[in-house]
Design brief:
alpha/beta; nine-stranded mixed β-sheet; two-stranded antiparallel ribbon; 15% strand
Length: 324
């Protein structure tokens, strides 16, 4: 036993020292990723605290306030159009219990003044901000936007697209639009589901992509085991909750997330500055969301986020200007 320890302890010590050194100096083993964008200011659902979420008015306002990336979700209509919407079922957003996949964008193929007659209902006049409980947004524009309209109006704006369903046709349509508007380098695949991400990456491997939940868990396991500095990573972005917002500005539906001890543990395990610094050094951007108060923006930056995602693009712009 003593002879075993004689060999194993120095080996473990050497492994630990090597791992810590490479954690701080990752470019010894890995080439730094070079993405076509670097975003410190990200507008969640187009900045849904200041305008109705995911509308062209919201996107335009966010760009005017200086956002460097728009985050959104997409779904497919019955007649094959890619609509920007967080939910597939429109009850929360419109008051109508219908799904986007059951509706047609163009009814009878008729267009008036450049817009189609459509089955899609309008957004509610006032819509609660999901990540700021008790706050509502409103705006003049209550129409659902098409992904193509966004690409056409803001051809150089980086966009993170979350795909929520394993719908091959949707993924192919998104990929086709990205290629058509020549924006593969500035459009990000995002999803929590690894099987969906596999389909996205298979469909268009030229687009950067973010960590899924399973890959995020693996990232933490690699970090805590000391293996992370030795392992190549394909992802270009890590997008994750800032845990301190949970049960404050964001009230989760899952009961387990309403437990203070669970959130405290989640924060201690995930908010590791040395991890985020390592990823940033490898060229992997770290975006923490959804920060809707100055103190949350400050906390995200202090823990090592390279970018902050918010529902309030004006708030974030003012904060970044005052702390430049």
């Amino acid at each position: 036993m003593s002879s075993f320890l004689y060999f194993i302890l120095p080996a473990l010590g050497g492994y630990t020292l090597t791992s810590l050194y490479l954690l701080k100096n990752p470019l010894i083993l890995h080439k730094r990723k070079r993405t076509a964008f670097y975003s410190t200011h990200i507008s969640h659902r187009g900045g849904c605290g200041e305008r109705i979420e995911s509308t062209m008015e919201a996107f335009t306002h966010a760009v005017e306030q200086g956002t460097q990336m728009i985050e959104l979700d997409c779904h497919l209509t019955q007649d094959g159009h890619v609509v920007v919407s967080h939910d597939e079922n429109l009850l929360r957003q419109t008051g109508h219990d219908v799904s986007i996949s059951s509706l047609k964008l163009q009814v009878g193929g008729q267009r008036s003044q450049g817009r189609a007659e459509t089955d899609l209902p309008l957004y509610k006049e006032r819509l609660e901000v999901t990540f700021y409980a008790g706050r509502y947004s409103s705006g003049a524009d209550r129409k659902f936007a098409l992904l193509e309209d966004l690409f056409r109006k803001f051809p150089e704006m980086p966009v993170s697209i979350e795909i929520k369903e394993n719908n091959k046709q949707l993924i192919e349509k998104v990929s086709d639009l990205v290629r058509r508007y020549d924006r593969e380098g500035i459009t990000v695949w995002a999803t929590v589901n690894s099987s969906i991400m596999k389909e996205c990456h298979t469909t268009n491997g030229s687009m950067p992509f973010s960590f899924t939940v399973n890959r995020g868990v693996l990232l933490l396991l690699l970090f805590y085991s000391g293996l992370l500095p030795f392992v190549p990573l394909g992802e270009s972005l890590l997008q994750f909750y800032l845990p301190r917002i949970i049960n404050r500005t964001f009230i989760p539906e899952k009961r387990i997330l309403r437990n203070k001890m669970v959130i405290s543990l989640l924060e201690k395990v995930t908010m590791r500055k040395s991890l985020f610094k390592h990823l940033a050094a490898r060229g992997i951007q770290v975006h923490l969301f959804v920060c809707n108060e100055d103190e949350d923006i400050k906390a995200a930056i202090e823990v090592g986020a390279t970018g902050v995602m918010t529902d309030y693009p004006t708030l974030l712009s003012n904060y970044l200007r005052s702390h430049d």
